[in-house]
Amino acid sequence: MGSARVSPQQPVEAGSWQSYTLIYTAGKFGIDDQGGVKLAFRTHSDMTPLQMDDPTAPGYLTVETSNNALIEVDISYKRNLRPWGHSITVLCKEFLKPGDEITFRVGDQRQGSPGVRTQTHIEAEHQFRITVDAFATVDYTPLEEDKQPFITIVPGKASVWKALLPTLRQVGQPFRFIVKPEDRWGNPSDQFTGVVSLKANNPIKGLPEKVTFNSGDFSVVLDDLVIDEEGDYHIDVLIDDAVVARSNPLRIKISSPFSHYWSDMHGQSGETIGSGSARDYFFFAKYRSFVDITGHQGNDFQITDDFWSEINSLTAEFNEEGKFLALPGYEWSGNTGLGGDHNVWYRTEGRPIYRSSRAIIRDKTRPESDCHDVTELFEALEGEDVLVVPHVGGRFADVTYAHDARVEPSVEVHSSWGTFDWIVHDALAMGYRIGIVAGSDGHKGRPGASYPGDAKFGSYGGLTCHLLPELTRDSLFKEFRQRHHYATTGCRLYLAAQMNYGQPAKIFFRNPSLGNDEHTLSQTAMMGDIVQTDQETATFSLDVLAHAPIEKIELYDGTKRIECIRPYSESDLGARYRISCKGQETRGRQRLVKWTASANLTGATIARIKATNFYNPDKQPELTSATCVEWTSVTTGGAQSIDLWVENETAGSSIDIRTNQGVMNIALADVTIDGTEVSCGGIDKALVIQRLPEQLNETQLSISRDVTIPAKGDSVIYARITLEDGHVAWTSPVYSFK
């Protein structure tokens, strides 16, 4: 079918502007007239969109033939076999002989175009995939894999520093501390050399004052640190006496039945819809993002029998009890009308894969194992040592369609796709007793540190904190089934939630609706527990310790918000106004909302601005004048916000907010602590403005509230915590009934 070559061949920096020249040489058959060639890129590459209309604009594409044959060129998205959704199709109106060439200039800079911005995530072999219709049959045949041209995409220079601690350990229990730099797009960077200083707020045994980064170092890992005193700890990272990072908080207790371990159990690699290899995926989780637990969730209809065996081999290789857990699993990817996306994880390797379909694989083995409906999947998994979690991805899981408490203890509230409180509310409205987890569903090969880049994935990937007595698969599966975990939008904060009863109550080991009455008696239950009591009331306690100031804590009883708690009051408010664009269009693939917005002040000026959840460094809000800020953004269920510190206010000062989704004009004096919201349609699409204190300071907050236990049904108490920096966390509910 021919050959192809691409230039430049040297490694290319992620997110850099380039021009690529790819030359396809026709093979033994040539190409008949009405045949053609496709040049494709992965669907989830966020390279600049291509165009052929403006030679001075980004993404300009030209295509020409060596024999001047007449051709037609089409640029399309999702009109090619997945995962190669970005496709350039060249239709040959005249034939090509063997040896004739087609030259693609992707980002042709010859007439003034800046080129194309390379995808923002690193990839060892970023393929320019060539398929050929040599016989004009519209049957495109790929070049052999070893003949497909590729480039290597590497990280840029260190731009942002991260410092990672565990969140809960005991006095005397060894732990590790990680310092790592990232480039401006969130890729781990190995381009810093020099010394960084470390400073803890209280003594930590084994912590040096300085560490050295050598060329090629992606991180420095300090193992076997120990703390002898109960308390809360953090570590600052300094370069030239300036703090470049502060770690997440670590709480040390004298004794605790649990420690905290962090997971991103949900993502894909290049063998399915993602980027990079599965081996690179597990390596990243263990040695780059430093999560404690991961799983690989490829779409089942793309997982061949050979790849399923490879996934199992890799999890067995990377799993290291006590240090790192790698779980075998996959994503059951049935259509939403048949249940929708569900993650499946096994405790051990060698278990079967029950596919929702074989849409783009040709394996014919064990067709009896196919489960086209999620109810069939639940039946097939009966007796398996397995965990299942519904989630919102391209397809969303319809939890109202089916649920099996035997295997499905929790639902996923957040991923790179967005924030979806509605799936939790759907489950609770159905009376399910579920926990709350989060993951990335990342497609860029970065589990545990999944940045959205410049793509329709508008959110940073989520994490789940597991409360475990030890880091083993047995412990994980036991505690996961009891919903002993909490979810975040990617931060690592400390949370503790419990319910206190005046007398011993039944704390069930599993959901008693399954007919299992095994329980213990206690006056205290933790998040996720299901409890039977004779009491009319109980006391819910929550302790939050975060890396950033706390904006608010919302308490829920099921789907009803019962209280909003802030560590400040009306009297603390200052001339700081937060404008938020939030929400989603639909529950399905078309959920993304594109915002084009401006805010103009009358009778006041803007001293400074600060953006929240704007992860694309090239698309930040801009202060265009002393009275105007402009921005573009995308939301997929969560929120992106701009804080304005206002000065020179006069009587009658107002703000006029104009967006393509909705508008708002309000006097600054009328902006309150609770905010004003303009609904913009969709599911929860809205424009919001609220007033905040000039500065938030409280990173720790403990609350205690009495709750009523109903005569019938469950009390379902959980907390949703929002931090000043936009991160959100959810505790799994405590279920109390009589």
Structure characterization notes:
- The protein contains five helices and 55 strands.
- By secondary structure, the chain is mainly β.
- The protein folds into five domains: 151 residues, Immunoglobulin-like (Sandwich); 94 residues, Immunoglobulin-like; 233 residues, TIM Barrel, CATH 3.20.20; 117 residues, Immunoglobulins (Immunoglobulin-like); 123 residues, Sandwich (Immunoglobulin-like), CATH 2.60.40.
- The strands form twelve sheets. The chain has a 15-stranded mixed beta sheet that branches. A five-stranded antiparallel beta sheet has the order 7-8-5-12-13, with no helix packed on it. Strands 44-47-42-51-50 form a five-stranded antiparallel beta sheet, with no helix packed on it.
Query: What is the overall shape?
Result: globular
Low-confidence stretches: none
Derived structural class: mainly beta
Mind telling me the CATH class of the largest domain? Alpha Beta
Distance between the termini: 71 Å
Task: Tell me the number of helical segments per DSSP (H or I, 4 or more residues long).
Answer: 5
| Mean pLDDT reading | 96
CATH architecture of the largest domain: Alpha-Beta Barrel
